[in-house]
Design a protein that fits this description.
single chain; mainly alpha; 15 helices
């Protein structure tokens, strides 16, 4: 950043800000992520760089979703999608699936499950974009979860099966955690608690390998609830305590309330 400022490389400076924002997003350092992405947004607006601007809005959507601020996440995802949908630049258009994923995730929290499914299916029509397989699995999981919340287990099962199959080919530990987590919820809905617990425990152990406490708090909560449903309260206790501790530290108050 110091060098780009010194030589007045505004394009390089904007990209440096954006890259730092992305790094902090992946590290869950929310304040720093928003700070640097905001600086990148300002540079993009000055330069009228719609490609960078859409990426900034995509970053904001993710950052606020990680903080459970789904309303703000939705606003940024929609802003980014509107620009990308009007663009004739193929690189900008390729950001649309990720933005639709963010829109769908926020709408799901608002219980607009049919809209989540609609955006997910629209996103799945796109191909040949960066990290396509990773986003495809996330989209399949979002659609499956929305169907589960609508009580449509047959439709949900179809999308979970596709997600599981693609997950086996990807080899991404964080995606695997989310896949097993959704699979566990699916088995619970089918009234198969033992299969659900097996899936949740796979996700839980992968959380340790990935050192991902954000996902671990939700998985631990699901394990605790599973044991409670089976009246195995002694087994539920340590997972409930862990879920509560992590969710309070990470400000995931919905999970803290459940545990």
């Amino acid at each position: 950043i110091a060098l780009t400022k010194k030589i007045n490389d505004r394009d390089g400076l904007a990209k440096s800000y954006y890259n730092l924002g992305s790094i902090y997003t992946n590290l869950y350092h929310h304040d720093s992520a928003v700070y640097y992405t905001r600086l990148a947004e300002n540079e993009a607006l000055k330069a009228k760089d719609s490609f960078l601007l859409v990426h900034c809005y995509s970053n904001f959507a993710t950052q606020y979703r990680y903080q459970n601020d789904y309303e703000t996440s939705l606003e940024y995802a929609i802003k980014g999608a509107k620009i990308a949908e009007r663009s004739s630049d193929s690189s900008t258009i390729k950001i649309i699936p990720k933005l639709y994923l963010d829109i769908g995730a926020s709408l799901k929290v608002q219980k607009q499950f049919l809209k989540t499914i609609e955006y997910g299916k629209k996103a799945l029509e796109y191909t040949n974009y960066p990290e396509e397989q990773r986003y495809r699995i996330l989209l399949l999981l979002e659609i499956a979860d929305a169907y589960l919340k609508l009580g449509q287990t047959t439709d949900a099962g179809e999308y979970i099966s596709m997600a599981v199959a693609e997950n086996e080919l990807l080899g991404n530990i964080v995606i695997a955690i989310q896949t097993f987590g959704t699979q566990g919820i699916y088995y619970n809905k089918l009234g198969k608690p033992k299969l659900a617990l097996e899936a949740f425990l796979k996700a839980y152990h992968l959380c340790d390998s990935a050192k991902n406490d954000n996902l671990k708090s939700e998985v631990a909560n699901n394990i605790a609830l599973n044991y409670i449903d089976q009246k195995q309260y002694r087994n539920a206790h340590p997972f409930a305590e862990e879920a509560n501790m992590l969710s309070i530290r990470l400000k995931q108050f919905r999970i803290a309330a459940n545990s």
